[in-house]
Design brief:
Strand order of the largest sheet: 5-4-1-18-19-20-21
Number of strands: 21
Largest sheet: 7 strands, mixed
Shape: globular
Strand content: 15-25%
């Protein structure tokens, strides 16, 4: 009897240990990319200008025009409220670790970086959140601080207001209102931005179990905070720029915030020097911007690849789970349709210059990166690549809260080989429409001046933030993408014709009738939409992946599929390419809720079909 009881106790003990091990490893980390925070309620430190008074609430705000928002791939103003909503959502879920993979600011302006720091500090102190940040091309526009100007703030009576860090940047002839001059609108460089955001990973903290940079000289076993603090000086964190005598800062780091978890923050901002340099020290104009990402990292920041190999090898040796993040994608983010996009639209359209070469994925997969969270593209996407050596990299593109579809990601670490990724849409946002009275004034002004650039006022009827971002994308397509990206002859051949005309393009009536019947469709279903609707839904799929399916509707998607089948048989090569692109965009890897199995290098969709 005693022996049986002992066995039962032993089994219960072992089960308890096993349960503790699993719960210990089930860590959750939230990823919020491309916040692009503009602190719309901030005050300048060197100018009394407060912005403009809300005619409804009486509150002052400093915002950009709706016209500028609808010509940009990001929202400038309402994302402020969406960011707070996302943080509150994270708090409710009990998640403590939050990663921001770059473009946390509008353009690295002091007023906005300070505003973000205050928000993050507030959530750290009140809710115990820990934030881990890396740089994006909008956080450090150039490696050194520079003067800047924005001509599209909203001013009195709906007019445009220029705000500049220097009088020299201002063209008063183009100004309806007296320009505002403040150093708070300049673009900070590495030194200023990193120090302002120092508490969010860029420098070691006493609570970190481990912290290092590509330039650290200590070992894990001998780690202590005081030594790490000495090694964290920005003067010690520089690399030589190829073919020059210049050195730039690298803000990469790896941190162990929770026992057994290593977060690898890769600073993938790679600034390309001009062929002819000024000879002046710290001249921002000696470099191009960093928006290309990893293609330039391989050329100008090769030290990072060596360091990543070292970190990943040590993580494996010590049994640490390594999660990498950076601002830029490591894998093609066009559902492998980039070759067709290039043929149809051209190599310099559709942001194709930002697509990483296949070598990037191969190199980082072989360097030991299995899971990487990126941003930059404001899209929801998952890319998978297996190298020639058999190493697999899962690249998870985190959507932006400042674009369609507004969302963030949650990573749940179940074990060292099983990971769950869930995408959380931020659709309902408190006060998202509180700035609409300002836009009413702007719209009235545009009408009175008979402006050529006038937006669709229906956007101000949006019932929630999700619908608002949907309108933003629709107007962006109409006002910018169609005129800038689409070949004129192709656009004319598709934009205004009905879905019925598209599906009947080859006049295979018997074949079409068969397809319609097998899919429970009728030809009249295709009469309710046009080529523009198909283009708009292409962008919704391209930006949001699976998140767009419920908005478009499975019935409409089936209609698009049948149209594409017919277009692929067309003798018009551009329509054939369009069909191939659309079908690939409809059928990407799971991007909403999925599981990654590193043991078998596979991805399983957990979304409800």
């Amino acid at each position: 009897m005693f022996r049986i009881s002992a066995i039962v106790v032993l089994l219960l003990f072992l089960y308890s240990c096993k349960s503790q091990k699993v719960s210990k490893k089930e860590v959750q980390i939230a990823f919020i990319a491309d916040v692009h925070l503009q602190d719309i309620f901030a005050k300048f430190e060197d100018n009394d200008y407060q912005g403009i008074k809300n005619p409804i609430t009486g509150e002052y705000a400093n915002i950009r025009t709706m016209n500028s928002q609808l010509h940009s791939t990001r929202i400038f103003n309402e994302n402020y409220f969406a960011f707070l909503e996302a943080l509150n959502n994270i708090v409710k879920r009990g998640i403590k670790q939050v990663v921001l993979p770059g473009d946390f600011s509008d353009d690295g302006q002091p007023v906005h970086v300070r505003g973000l720091r205050k928000i993050l500090n507030g959530y750290s102190q009140k809710y115990g959140l820990s934030f881990w940040v890396t740089t994006g091309n909008h956080d450090v526009v150039r490696p050194f601080s520079q003067d800047a100007v924005k001509t599209d703030f909203l001013g009195k009576d709906g007019k445009e207001q220029i705000i500049s860090s220097s009088k020299e940047n201002v063209n008063k002839n183009k100004s309806e209102l007296e320009p505002i001059i403040t150093s708070d609108i300049k673009n900070w460089g590495y030194k200023e931005t990193i120090h302002e955001m120092r508490d969010f990973g860029f420098f070691p903290k006493k609570t970190d179990l481990y912290w290092e940079t590509p330039f650290s000289n200590y070992a894990y076993d001998q780690y202590n905070f005081e030594e790490a603090q000495k090694e964290s000086s920005l003067e010690k964190r520089t690399y030589a720029i190829k073919n020059t005598s210049l050195f730039l800062t690298d803000a990469s780091y790896v941190v162990e915030p929770i026992k057994g978890i290593w977060l690898l923050a890769i600073d993938a901002n790679a600034y390309v020097p001009n062929e002819k340099l000024s000879g002046k020290p710290d001249n921002p104009q000696d470099f191009s911007g960093a928006n290309t990402g990893y293609n330039n990292v391989l050329v100008y920041k090769s030290h990072l690849l060596k360091w990543v190999k070292k970190v990943s090898a040590e993580a494996k040796q010590r049994g640490k789970i390594l999660i990498a993040f950076s601002h830029y994608p490591m894998v093609d983010f066009n559902d492998n349709a980039s070759p067709e996009l290039k043929q149809l639209f051209g190599a310099n359209k559709m942001q194709l210059q930002r697509v990483p070469d296949e070598e990037v994925a191969q190199q980082f997969a072989d360097a030991g990166i299995h899971i990487h969270f990126g941003g930059h593209m404001h899209i929801n996407d998952t890319g998978v690549r297996t190298s020639a050596k058999g190493n697999t990299l899962f690249n998870i593109q985190t959507p932006s809260l400042a674009a369609y579809m507004p969302a963030y990601k949650i990573l749940t670490i179940h074990s060292d080989s099983e990971f769950e990724v869930e995408t959380i849409i931020i659709g309902k946002v408190h006060k998202f429409n509180s700035l609409f009275p300002f836009y009413e004034e702007e719209y009235a002004h545009l009408q009175n001046t008979k402006s050529d650039h006038i937006w669709n006022k229906e956007i101000l009827k949006a019932e929630d933030y999700k619908e608002f971002t949907n309108w933003h994308l629709k107007e962006l397509v109409r006002l910018r993408f169609l005129p800038e990206d689409f070949p004129e002859d192709f656009l004319k051949s598709i934009i205004n014709i009905s879905g019925k005309d598209l599906v009947e393009i080859n006049k295979n009536t018997s074949e079409i009738a068969k397809d319609l019947k097998s899919n429970s469709l009728s030809i009249s279903d295709f009469e309710s939409w046009t080529g523009f609707d198909m283009i708009f839904d292409f962008y919704r799929l391209k930006n949001a992946g699976e998140l767009a399916v419920s908005q478009i509707g499975k019935k409409r998607l089936k209609q698009y599929e049948l149209v594409c089948i017919q277009l692929k048989k067309s003798n018009n090569p551009k329509l054939v390419l369009w069909a191939e692109i659309f079908l690939k965009t409809m059928n990407g890897e799971p991007s909403d809720h999925f599981k990654i199995d590193l043991e078998n290098n596979k991805i399983d969709n957990l979304s409800v079909k």
